[in-house]
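Issue: ligand-bound run for 2-phosphoglycolic acid - logging full I/O for the record.

Environment: standard queue, default settings, no custom constraints.

Inputs:
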Amino acid sequence: MQNLIVANWKMNPASIAEAKNIFEGIKNGVEGVNSEVVICPPFVYLECGMSDTPHLKFGAQNVYFEDKGAFTGEISTAMLKNLGVEYVIIGHSERRKYFAETDETINKKIKKALDAGLKVIFCIGETAEEREAGKKNEVLERQIKTGLDGNENLENINIAYEPVWAIGTGNNCSVEETKESVEFIRKISGVERILYGGSVKSENSGAYIKESGSNGLLVGGASLNPEEFVRIVKSAE
Ligand code: PGA
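Outputs:
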């Protein structure tokens, strides 16, 4: 299976000029690699990235589950699809934490995105408290079962395992522990392409790809530095 390496820029950078620099740096560095490379910038930079660097693939960081209408501030699946966006991240832990997303709303978003023909990067992961209480697998199973409820066709679903305690902390999950979780997630979900995310850097990225049984990476902070992101992509070759 082809590896999938995803850049999640989150709410960065502040200007279109900076965004263009990162697109350019990534474009030049990843030409001809074997992995599928997807950039998920803020919505407002998607169009610019897609027209300037058409051979990169693009994803959104979120989407809403209603078709259209009076939902101030939201973006629909049709808008993304009509723009030519291929992927969408759904259920990121920051969306769950700061924007009150639940397993149920995530389930609606996944259904809507799949119906629209978008490919989904569905994020799951336990908090430090849940892990310490020995509830990791229980949490992962609940997130998977509720998030994917009613979706029989798993073809366009990728799951990103992102332990919440490992995101943006420099405290990445060990490859051994990741391997156990990746196997568990694959078994429970039936989804084939499982990514790891959480403090991925070029020093640890190769080990996840080669030794954890995962098929790719979801990269946050390090994806804003094009040289570093390109090193991460190349570590999967
Ligand atoms: P990080 O973020 O690489 O900065 O830890 C990963 C993510 O939130 O997807």
